[in-house]
Amino acid sequence: MSGFAGLWAEIAPIGRADGGGYLRFALTEPELALRDWFRGQAARRDMTVTEDGNGNLFAWRGEPWAPGTVLTGSHFDSVPHGGGYDGPLGIVSAFLAVDRVPADRPIGIAAFVEEEGARFGVPCLGSRLLTGVMDPSRAAALTDRDGISFAEALGAVPAGRDARIGQIAAVVELHIEQGVALSAPVGVASAIWPHGRWRMDFTGVGDHAGTTRMTDRRDPMLTFAFTVLTANKEARLSGAHATVGRVQAEPNATNAIPSLVRGWLDARAADTATLDHLVDTVVKTATERAGRDGTQLVVTPESVTAEVSFDTALASRLSALLDGAPILPTGAGHDAGVLSAQVPTAMLFVRNPTGVSHSPAEHASDADCEAGVEALARVLADLTRT
Ligand code: GLV
Ligand code: MN
Ligand code: MN
Ligand code: MN
Description:
- By secondary structure, this protein is α/β, with parallel strands linked by helices.
- It folds into 2 domains: about 5-195 and about 305-385, Zn peptidases (Aminopeptidase, 3-Layer(aba) Sandwich); about 195-305, Alpha-Beta Plaits.
- Helices cover about 35% and strands about 25% of the residues.
- It has helices at about 5-10, 30-45, 90-100, 125-130, 135-140, 150-155, 220-240, 270-295, 310-320, 335-340, 365-385; strands at about 50, 55-60, 70-75, 105-110, 170-175, 185-190, 195-205, 205-210, 240-250, 255, 260-270, 295-305, 310, 325-330, 345-350.
- The strands form 3 sheets. Strands 1, 2, 3, 4, 5, 6, 13, 14 and 15 form a 9-stranded mixed sheet that branches. A 4-stranded antiparallel sheet has the order 9-11-7-12, with helices on one face. It has a two-stranded antiparallel sheet with strand order 8-10.
- β1 (about 50) and β2 (about 55-60) form a beta hairpin.
- α3 (about 90-100) crosses α11 (about 365-385) and α7 (about 220-240) runs antiparallel to α8.
- It binds glyoxylic acid and manganese (II) ion (3 copies).
- Glyoxylic acid binds near residues 116, 123, 332 and 333.
- One of its GO terms (molecular function) is metal ion binding.
- This is N-carbamoyl-L-amino-acid hydrolase.
- Keywords: Hydrolase, Metal-binding, Zinc.
């Protein structure tokens, strides 16, 4: 039985970025290297590797998709300069946990593609395709920042829903906790906040920075800046979270008034009504402001994920099994949330001492990760007991 630190060290160098953190975008070279590593781990355990035509990779102990199988795992891809734990921890822990569960128990390990949406814009793309909530032709046409489509990166139009997901007895995803809410080594998820991404295109009139009178300008950067402040204020007022973490300007020149500013609003809240109210208020206020600035605003929802309440009985059972592990909600999205609509699903969280994530500073201690492996092994043994 090997320990956490040894296996973790095998993947730690893969995709490490100059400037800190990781660049492990879906279906790019580092992520493909991690998939090779996954195949190697499966082979060492005599597990059968399959793919589902959507970019998701599986290792099976027993027949692939056998009724009663418990599926675990997570994702390899990262946000730009993200931490190394968000995703891969759930896959490394899965292989180590499988080693600690009696050999006759049917377990699958999944590596879901494009969980972050960092390359093609829609998070949990692989699990959405697998469960049929994402149209394969829409997914095929999504493009990355270089104009490469998901279908091109995958080498095919995605296959879409695989009805065999309905044969899976339960899904358990282990993940690093991404805030400061967990003070025990391991916790159990109760819910995922509803959340989404809205692309905001602000257009105005590009012109010379030195010669255009201030009163003559139709500057979309001003409307954009006002909108960022509005989102922040409205989120604070309602206890929601709003972030604008990605922005593009055209022509993106120091000495030109931009003709276009494109920013992405990431908004999340504990309940749907609060989220809807936040987004509606931001869009309405920004549109009014655009009218005053002589600019235009078009808002396009890129992905909206409904509130997830994990199976309450399952969460309680796992908490009891894990000696009263705390049960907590999260504002982060996960493939487990998508799968929970069709399969009894639970999540285990491993303590994050600083709460920092989507950052090179993301960290969990080896001791807590080891506790996570042990917890996952207990859970898998319990859920596969016949
Ligand atoms: C993915 O990690 C997300 O919640 O943004
Ligand atoms: Mn993430
Ligand atoms: Mn993740
Ligand atoms: Mn996530």
